[in-house]
Amino acid sequence: MDTTNLANLYELPALDWSSVTARLDAGCDQAPGSGGPDRHTTWLTTIDADGSPHVTAIGSLWIDGHFWFETGRATRKGRNLARDPWCTVAIATREFDLVVEGTAEVVTDRDTVGRLAAVWAEGGWPCEVDETGTALTAPFSAPSAGTPPWSVYRVTARSAYAVATIEPGGATRWTF
Asked: Is there a domain that residue 64 lies in?
């Protein structure tokens, strides 16, 4: 991993990636009042067929060093990722704003899909693994997720940028 201090101009130290991941490991739910500035919303940017960006809010999890989300493969983001897996994930926490650049892939491993379904269900979304064992279903999801079944996606980071939002401040880029 290469670390670049983007705040040298202000003589601030580089941020520590392990501090960023420790904060993400602690959880970033979407309940009002739970995050920065009032709740955590994760934003996914994919690339439309014409090369323009498509940005949408997603419900995400940070597990095992990856962002995870679910959506229908026929949604705009699902179609974009099938054509071009490059994407960014952005989230604001109380401690920092973070953008992760990487690639998203559909995960169909039954154990992984089941484990993530259990985490989402424990967090209040009543999802379960569908009859194929490789996707999710539930009585509801975000309107932008389309109709079930919903595929599970894992984002593998290629680089990340964080800007500290608390003292002493700082900004750092990591390349993996």
From this structure: yes
